[in-house]
Amino acid sequence: MAKDLAIDLGTANTLVYRKGDGIVINEPTVIAVNRKTGEVLAHGEEAWEMIGRTPGNIVAVRPLRGGAITDFDVTEKMIRMLLQRAGVSRFSRPKVLICVPSAITEVERRAVTDATRRAGAADAQLLEQPIAAAIGADLPIDEPVGNMVIDIGGGTTETAVISLGGIVALEAVRVGSFDIDSEIQAYVRRSHGIAIGERTAEMIKKTIGTAIPMPNLTDAEVRGRDLVSGLPKTVVLTDAEIREAINPIVTQMVDSVIRCLGTAPPELAQDFLKRGMYLVGGGALLTGMGERIAMDTNVPVILSNDALEAVVLGAGHCIENFSELRSLFMDSRRDRNE
């Protein structure tokens, strides 16, 4: 009998949790396809290494942008490969719980479930990422206290206040860590006259990208293509100039948190001051991000120990205890629609 699966289908990374086994797949959400034949040549880490390095007939793409499917066929192929690697066959079709951003539309929700069913799942259900992240962070979401989760992903930033198993306040914007990478690329092109790729921009972000001034950071030497001569060129970047370049994106993220705090009931706001806000997602790992949010909101921020895995761990807990938690996310979604 097939084991149920939980999938965090993220814009940047995809994680798969198999019932009874834990996380079995953790890889970039990238797939390499032959343009002429439609054949899938690589996915995950292997496809990630191909970005910006493929010939014209091969394209390495991210099938999700802003938490939404941008290429239905490629997404279906990727999900099919994930299910096969997780042990799914024509004789064993599992139920799949998929974590999605709360910002996506009903049309986008149907696209995700349809792609999963066509890829081989017996059934596909959706769970909003803030609820999954709160469960993964081991927050007491079924109690009458305010639990606040900030989930910064590759394409979206979601802030949710959760109490008694439901979302009380929510603020979601389609801005994430990929937008930070894009700003770095644009800045280097504009200020230094060289073109760099997505992978290089991410390296710069991880090396010297910060949300607030930090001590003891060294400059980064970056290689790219000179826009005038077309020849390779090397420039040196400082953390201060990168921080200034990405500040508009970081500010949008922080402002969304402030707006969510502004819509939370006053009684729950008292809980945030005592318990703090929990920060999860890959974008949460930007150096100084938690400190920046705490400075601008005057509310403590706690970075989850499993920031990258909190969402899929929460969804995994749901499939491990399905009968107990089924009404939790179903009721939450129903309340949001009313």
Report what the structure shows.
The chain is of the alpha+beta class. The chain has three domains: 5-131 and 311-337, ATPase, nucleotide binding domain (Nucleotidyltransferase, domain 5, 2-Layer Sandwich); 144-175 and 252-305, ATPase, nucleotide binding domain (Nucleotidyltransferase, domain 5, 2-Layer Sandwich), CATH 3.30.420.40; 177-245, Alpha-Beta Complex (Actin, Chain A, domain 4), CATH 3.90.640.10. Helix content is 41%, strand content 26%. The protein contains eleven helices and 18 strands. A five-stranded mixed β-sheet has the order 3-2-1-9-10, with helices on both faces. It has a five-stranded mixed β-sheet with strand order 13-12-11-17-18, with helices on both faces. Helix 5 (177-192) packs across helix 6 (198-208) and helix 10 (310-320) packs across helix 11. The longest helix has 25 residues, at 239-263. The chain is flat and about 60 Å long. Mean pLDDT is 87; it is low at 329-334.
Helices and strands in order:
Blueprint: E1 5-9, E2 13-18, E3 22-28, E4 31-34, E5 40-43, H1 45-50, E6 58-61, E7 64-65, E8 68-69, H2 72-85, E9 95-100, H3 106-118, E10 123-128, H4 129-136, E11 147-152, E12 157-163, E13 166-173, H5 177-192, E14 194-195, H6 198-208, E15 220-226, E16 232-237, H7 239-263, H8 266-275, E17 277-280, H9 289-297, E18 301-303, H10 310-320, H11 322-337
Parallel strand pairs: 1-9, 9-10, 11-17, 17-18
Antiparallel strand pairs: 1-2, 2-3, 4-5, 4-6, 7-8, 11-12, 12-13, 14-15, 15-16
